[in-house]
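Ticket #4471: structure export looks truncated?
Reporter: QA, pipeline team
Priority: medium

Steps to reproduce: submit the single chain below to the structure queue and open the exported record.
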Amino acid sequence: MTILFNRVTVIMAALLILAALASPSALAAPQSVQPEPRKAAAPDEAGETGLKPVQAFDVAQGKVVRSVPNDKSFQKMSKKWLKSVTGLAPQMTADNSCTFVYRIPLAKPAVVKADAISITTNDVFLFYCENNPPLLLVFDGERKPYLLLFKEDIKPFIRKVGIPVLAD
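Actual output as written to the record:
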């Protein structure tokens, strides 16, 4: 029980860190309901597209372990995921089999429809879970989190990022 509690605590801490990465004011009081349009990233952190990089967060290590340039391919994959959303996840948090969380900054805000709600987001967070289907996490303009189920294949994304190494 203690191990499970510690693992859930680490995952929740990862969510807070990723929220802070998504926006410096993520933990501050919300200013607006709609996310602001994404500004170009500084040249030292931007890829060819002018976007912030895609980041891989290792839950066990508690830190970002890889950053790769954000490109049209990542944008296309994340849009496919968002279009394939089947609804809100019944759980409040990802479980302890989720070993990596990936942050994909979007080129422009995207609208996600889940059940009876519509969410506009600037970033997509993908939870890679070894024993369960992957999950998406998005934040609305008030920084409220939504954990989503979806049906799109993530293997091309994982292979492109390079971690974890997938068996063929």
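Status: closed, not a bug. The export was complete when the record was re-opened. Leaving a note from the reviewer for reference: Confidence is low (pLDDT under 50) at residues 1-35, 40-45.
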